[in-house]
């Protein structure tokens, strides 16, 4: 998107450099990289960065409002409410499609948001890897609140650990060795000292939780939660000592309830030029928009894009037994803006926030990008393509004018 930075990168790019870049990651974390990395980062000009942060600030006004918890009480499905919920989310991620407005200028459009951690550990590592293997201009940065990666990891460490020692905090997942994001788990353990523990390995004794390490039983005092209820549905009859909905003596960083509260359920409460029109399907009372071909139907309680319908009709909508559990969202047109050697590529940007326990508001820490040539962003829509996949964002830093007063 930043034309000069893009031109310089593309002129210096070679397949050999890219292969060496990916091989270095695979060698450092053998068997852990399980998704495609795009050939290029995204270079974001100052004007678009300002729009992204403005859009996020507008979302924060709704999410940080005192009535947000009461407005989202229905978001947590019956039977899945976890005790000891934090007063606010610990994480926030906002996904924006990069589009063009009516005047032809680039503009972000909110597609999804989640009150759940993203790949915070891996994303800084990936960004640094791009800087090691490719020429990234000095006046571009991938960080927001931190001066460098050491400060970034320290901020992340404080967020994840709270007041506890690393051995008292675990990263919780179900069969983590099978998860596509397991490289992030490995980097998080390396940087934070937090062990990744499978849900099936957690030991409950009364209201206390433990895990075993080197034949030693260690009490779990804080959980960095990466486990999603949807994933448990893939393992019916799973035998565990601990259920997520148990009332136990543990702190959560990334409380499971916030996964539901800040989600597609939140979209109808958001408005503005950066938010496509979104309503609960039940709010239409059977009177649907005449231009339904310009809308997408999304179930509230699904994961990774499952259940999304790009083509909807009044017949389909009228047949749904629970319209209160769906949203109808105005479609946006992703603008192909990343120049690759063989054409333009579409882009989505995720802005990633952390919110420490006693902090007054969330803090923007880092971002990621996903490049696509397919109908939708996602692996299954981009098979056999190049210059697609997971990537990093580098933002043009505001240039300071020279001091002419002396």
Task: Explain what you see.
By secondary structure, the chain is α+β, with helices and mostly antiparallel strands. The protein has ten helices and 19 strands. Helix 7 links the parallel strand 5 and strand 6 (195-198). The longest helix has 18 residues, at 46-63.
Write the layout of secondary structure elements.
Elements: H1 3-12, H2 15-28, E1 42-44, H3 46-63, H4 68-71, E2 91-100, E3 106-114, H5 120-133, E4 140-141, H6 149-161, E5 169-173, H7 182-192, E6 195-198, E7 203-205, E8 208-213, E9 216-220, E10 222-225, H8 229-232, E11 251-253, H9 256-261, E12 278-280, E13 295-299, H10 314-318, E14 326-330, E15 338-340, E16 343-354, E17 363-372, E18 389-391, E19 393-396
Parallel strand pairs: 1-19, 5-6, 5-10, 10-11
Antiparallel strand pairs: 2-3, 2-16, 4-19, 7-8, 8-9, 12-14, 13-14, 15-16, 16-17, 17-18
In short:
The chain has 406 residues and is an alpha+beta fold.
Please name the defining characteristics of this protein.
406 residues, alpha+beta, 19 strands, globular, disordered C terminus
Gyration radius, to the nearest Å? 22 Å
pLDDT below 50 for ≥5 consecutive residues: which ranges? 400-406
Q: How many individual helices?
A: 10
What helical percentage do the residues reach?
10-25%
Strand count, sense and closure of the main sheet?
A: 6 strands, antiparallel
Protein name: Circularly permuted type 2 ATP-grasp protein
């Amino acid at each position: 998107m930043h034309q000069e930075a893009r031109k310089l990168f593309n002129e210096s790019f070679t397949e050999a450099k890219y292969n060496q870049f990916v091989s270095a990651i695979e060698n450092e974390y053998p068997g852990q990289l399980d998704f495609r990395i795009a050939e290029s980062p995204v270079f974001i000009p100052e004007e678009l960065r300002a729009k992204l942060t403005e859009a996020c600030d507008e979302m924060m006004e709704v999410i940080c409002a005192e009535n947000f918890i009461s407005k989202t009480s229905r978001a947590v499905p019956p039977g899945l409410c976890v005790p000891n919920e934090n007063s606010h989310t610990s994480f926030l991620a906002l996904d924006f499609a990069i589009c063009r407005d009516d005047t032809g200028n680039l503009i972000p459009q909110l597609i999804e948001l989640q009150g759940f951690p993203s790949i915070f550990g891996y994303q800084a590592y990936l960004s640094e890897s791009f800087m090691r293997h490719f020429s990234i201009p000095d006046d571009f940065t991938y960080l927001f609140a931190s001066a460098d990666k050491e400060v970034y990891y320290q901020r992340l460490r404080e967020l994840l650990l709270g007041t506890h020692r690393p051995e008292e905090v675990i990263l919780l997942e179900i069969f983590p060795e099978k998860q596509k994001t397991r490289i992030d788990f490995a980097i998080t353990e390396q940087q934070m000292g937090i062990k990744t523990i499978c849900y099936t390995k957690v030991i409950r004794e009364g209201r206390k939780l433990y895990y075993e390490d080197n034949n030693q039983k260690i009490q779990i005092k804080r959980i960095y939660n990466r486990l999603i209820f949807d994933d448990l549905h893939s393992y019916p009859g799973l035998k565990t000592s601990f259920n997520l909905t148990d009332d136990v003596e543990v702190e959560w960083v990334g409380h499971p309830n916030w996964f539901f509260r800040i989600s597609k359920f939140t979209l109808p409460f958001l408005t503005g030029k950066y938010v496509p029109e979104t309503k609960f399907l039940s709010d239409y009372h059977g009177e649907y928009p005449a231009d339904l071909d310009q809308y997408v139907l999304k179930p509230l309680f699904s994961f990774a894009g499952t259940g999304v319908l790009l083509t909807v009709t009044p017949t389909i909508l009228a047949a749904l037994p629970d319209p209160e559990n769906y949203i109808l969202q105005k479609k946006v047109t992703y603008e192909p803006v990343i120049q690759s050697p063989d054409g333009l590529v579409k882009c989505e940007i995720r802005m990633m926030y952390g919110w420490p326990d006693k902090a007054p508001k969330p803090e923007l820490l880092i971002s990621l990008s996903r490049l696509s040539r397919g109908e939708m962003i996602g692996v299954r829509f981009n098979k056999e393509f190049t210059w697609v996949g997971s990537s990093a964002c580098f933002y043009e830093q505001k240039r300071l004018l020279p001091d002419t007063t002396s």
